[in-house]
Design goal:
Strand order of the largest sheet: 1-2-3-4-5-6-7-8
CATH architecture: Alpha-Beta Barrel
Radius of gyration: 19 Å
CATH topology: TIM Barrel
Number of domains: 1
CATH class: Alpha Beta
Oligomer: single chain
Structural class: alpha/beta
Helix content: 40-55%
Strand content: 5-15%
Largest sheet: 8 strands, parallel, barrel
């Protein structure tokens, strides 16, 4: 019997939820997804030291600020990953722009330009934006310009519907963070996979998309264990951390397909506008709290990254 990971690859695009080069080389994912937390973690990787030093020196020589060097380093790290995979690298727009459509679009364009200057076309990257109403509107503008987007920090059907309506290339519903919220709210230690709130959320979104012929890719993210991953086998994409990729690689058990377009229930389309979106988010304490928390945490890591770069530039 082949490993659970190899079986998963036969029905789902496996994406590496890491910026670690050695992990990407080992697991050979189709795509890579990054965020400020993962870029921050890469700074402690000895294998990244030459890249960091090169970007800092180039930034210092060009008179760039620490924030500008941080932006360049993020793209440089993405460019290095792009050289190792056949697919795309997701690169995140600054979290503090999550409620500013115009600024998000401008930042996305600058990311695309930086990649182009490094010889990487826009067909090799995805722009990551938080699934706020403003972020979704930014994605709509960018998609119309031929810049594909990954809508992240997605916790609800309302967000998923709005992203689909905007023509987003891909969404990243966060399984584990949904589960974390419900475990705390309900005073539980665990759930069986079929009753896991995070798993059920992604299954519902997948069914809605396939029932309505929506081409937006569903990429489950933020997993806490391999049981959650197995419960979504067959999902378009799944982005998985190295630790869980390792567990799947060493798991010889049979992995049945759970999700398939052929099994769509035929659920009706949902009308979505700004007022409806904001009302549904307001009514969903989990989605509202986890979205806000995710934005805060990504912003904190971005600021921490800038601080480290600033110290290195001064030194």
């Amino acid at each position: 019997m082949t490993s659970a990971l190899e079986q998963l690859r036969s029905m789902t695009v496996v994406v590496a939820d890491t910026g670690d080069v050695e992990a990407v080389k080992k697991y050979k994912p189709v795509d890579c997804t990054t965020n400020p937390s993962l870029v921050l973690a890469a700074l402690s990787d000895p294998g990244s030291e030459e890249l960091i030093a090169t970007e800092i020196e180039a930034g210092r020589s060009a008179g760039k600020t620490a924030e500008q060097v941080c932006d360049a380093l993020t793209v440089a790290a993405g460019a290095r990953l792009a050289a190792l995979i056949p697919g795309r690298v997701s690169t995140e727009v600054d979290a503090n722009l999550s409620f500013d459509t115009t600024a998000s679009v401008a930042r996305a364009r600058s990311i695309v330009e930086d990649y182009a200057n490094r010889g990487i076309g826009k067909d090799r990257i995805l722009i990551k934006l938080a699934s706020t109403w403003e972020g979704i509107r930014a994605a709509e503008i960018l998609q119309n310009e031929g810049i594909d987007c990954n809508l992240t920090l997605l916790f609800s059907m309302a967000q998923a519907v709005a992203c689909a309506d905007a023509g987003a290339f891909l969404i990243s519903p966060f399984v584990g963070r949904i589960t974390d919220w419900y475990k705390k709210a309900e005073g539980r230690d665990s759930y069986e996979p079929d009753n896991d709130p995070g798993v059920k959320s992604v299954r519902g979104i997948y069914d809605y998309y396939k029932s309505n012929g929506i081409e937006t890719v569903v990429m489950g993210a933020s997993f806490r264990n391999i049981d959650q991953i197995k419960a979504l086998a067959g999902c378009d994409n799944l982005t998985i951390a190295p630790k869980l990729l390792d567990e799947l690689e060493n798991d010889p058990s049979e992995l049945p397909r759970v999700l398939s377009p052929d099994n769509a229930s035929g659920v009706a389309p949902i009308d979505m506008n700004e007022a409806t979106f904001r009302w549904h988010m307001n009514s969903d304490a989990m989605a509202t709290e986890k979205l806000a928390e995710g934005i805060r945490n990504f912003d904190a890591d971005h600021k921490k990254l800038i601080g480290i770069i600033s110290e290195r530039m001064a030194g």
